[in-house]
# Entry
Amino acid sequence: GAVVSQHPSWVICKSGTSVKIECRSLDFQATTMFWYRQFPKQSLMLMATSNEGSKATYEQGVEKDKFLINHASLTLSTLTVTSAHPEDSSFYICSAGVGQPQHFGDGTRLSIL
Amino acid sequence: AQTVTQSQPEMSVQEAETVTLSCTYDTSESDYYLFWYKQPPSRQMILVIRQEAYKQQNATENRFSVNFQKAAKSFSLKISDSRLGDAAMYFCAYRSYLYGGATNKLIFGTGTLLAVQP
# Structure
């Protein structure tokens, strides 16, 4: 069964709305989780590393104030897309794991109208 | 910084035939992991095979095998007896051998879209 649960799987909302995506590790504790973004027919690009109990580490070019990450417990990381606009529409996917391999959530398809 | 390159945007293979997907990478590290992931239209990320760089023996998983050439920094995936269900996007990925924190992140290639013809 799935060891990383991601919710919601699909969200459609109006421009200007903030959207929260959850990533949960189901049967292990994850001090670190990763958030990726994938545009159609492109690769997964790492957005940020989520660290339990401390600030996330963002990749170059990723807006910290736009993509808020909170990792308040050892089993949950959240990504909030604030004031989302159509250009934020994409597929967002998280991963977590102790060692290898990393386990991926099933992803969230975000559509901003 | 590490990079992963997949030079074949698209490949096609006949059902039951064999196909090889190419991947090269660049790193200054001596120990690391390499992976092939499959992403079908559902967009789930499915681990196909992994290789530890310190192991000389090429990894195999049923119909999937790799040709790992460490000196050449090459890591190709061979799919034997191709099936219709193998049609998907395939990503090559790199991970540092160092344990913990941000070092667990995966660096992906641009992907190869594999079509399987009946």
Remarks:
- DSSP finds no helices and twelve strands in chain B.
- The mean pLDDT of chain B is 94.
